[in-house]
Amino acid sequence: MSVLRLIWSGFVMNLKMLGTSSFFLLTSTVQPVIFATIAYYMFKSGGRPGTLLYAALGAGMMGVWSTTLFGSGGMIQWQRWQGTLELGVGAPPSMALVFLPFSLANAFTGMYSLAATLIWGRVFFGVPLHFAHPWLFVLALPATVVALGLMGLILASTFVLYRYANALANLLEYPVWIASGLIFSTAILPAWTRPISWALPPYWGVLALRHAALGGDVWRPLAMLVVLGIVSIAISTYTFRLFEHLARARATLSLT
Amino acid sequence: MTRWLRVFFVGGVIAYRGLFNWIRPAMYIPTMLGSPFFQLIFFTKLGQYAHAESRDFYVVGNSVQVCAMSSVYGMTMSVANERQFGTLGPLLASPANRAAVFLGRGLPVLANGLLVSVFTFVAGALFLGFRPGLASVPALAAILVVTVASCTGFGMLLGSVGLRAKDVFFAANLAYFVMLLFCGVNIPLDVLPGWMSIVGRCLPLTHGIAAAREVAAGAPLSQVAGLVWTEAGIAVAYAAAGFVFFRYLERASRHSAVLDAY
Q1: Cβ contact (<8 Å) for B45 and A184?
Q2: Mind giving me the DSSP string for B152-207?
Q3: Is the pTM of this model over 0.80?
Q4: CB spacing of A38 vs B42 below 8 angstroms
Q5: In which domain, by residue range, is B167 found?
Q6: Per the structure, how many domains does chain B have?
Q7: Nearest to B173 among A26, A167, A178 (CB)
Q8: What is the pLDDT of residues B236-260, one digit of tens each?
């Protein structure tokens, strides 16, 4: 029960903090809308207007990834700057559990992106919002957000040791968009990138959402999201414990 | 004059080293080189998937646009961070010539913007098979210098806003993405609605990118002289507007006693 309370209060507190951040407003709403617009015009000029819903979903998912990524990097870095990281580490629950609700809140904020790009596409480009499997879409959305939040937890754990989390976050934004095929099919990428795509929750997340919206098998990508989520929990629990110990042993925990 | 030049060159470099947050290799390489490289790959692949334009269209557009990583963010930091770091008061209390203080900050930013763009062009050549004729390289370099200068002028204007605005980095981030959409980086201007292409033509990069594309396709520099001169005019206009704004906000901030306040 106390675990659930911890998750809930951490989740709500981080949501409130993110709600006051203009950077997150930009990342979760403005940036996806700009990318969605670029994609709409590129698809239109290429004579593929039928793919506009595809573009809206993809641009929305790009926003979900961006908020997860910058949020995961930021939550450690901001706590360092504010001097509250040591308090989180010193608290009785494990560090992974302390930061889990933060990571989930980051990914949840990313859902604004999907809402923004779908509404934007409908209002300004007349994108039809007829989902092939609406109920499966409703199921796929939280599954994707939770899986991305758990992946964000692994990233956050590495940022305990790496002081330039922002740099890593800046670097990882585009590669995951590319490898996950968020806005174009991974079939146009070299074959050696396939295993990378399969290991990324955003790949399965966008597949689940796309199939739920446009038609196709939703259950297999959903199952993969569950598997990758469980793997992420296992990895992040281990890495948080390891990196927390290393940071404490090297006395680098609070160094900015 | 010697003093003016010293403030311009030495002051500019010192300010850049002190205020540009991403100067350390651990920050610079992923942010200023890694991110532009993947931006190039992303849009080239998206264009390929959308069957929109040729590969060279995206290589040239994005390689020129990524100079904004330095010109917009770098210039914003070089001016606005004075306030963030609490050094704005001492700086403005000094008798140094304001034009030298302000414009000198643009030089390292311009050099860095060129480096980022050249790196991305080279990455386009190595990884995407971009092959402009050797004869077009000098003209391409000249266009790049003018375009990066124009983008730096735009950054100066944004940086000046940082003397007063609470969150100028929001504006810098927004400007970077707006440029991606409006400046013909990935979408030809004639595909955009009329008002968007008009906005694009008032922004830096647009004319430079158009000129660079023509030159990369084999046109001589003389054929795109009009575009290059327009880009140079935009550079002067934004730099002048930035300086005027800087002076205005300096005076207004002194007057209202909000120089270092947030």
Answers
A1: yes
A2: HHHHHHHHHHTTT-S-HHHHHHHHHHHHHHHSSSSS-GGGS-HHHHHHHHHSSSHH
A3: yes
A4: no
A5: 2-256
A6: 1
A7: A26
A8: 999 999 999 989 988 888 888 777 7
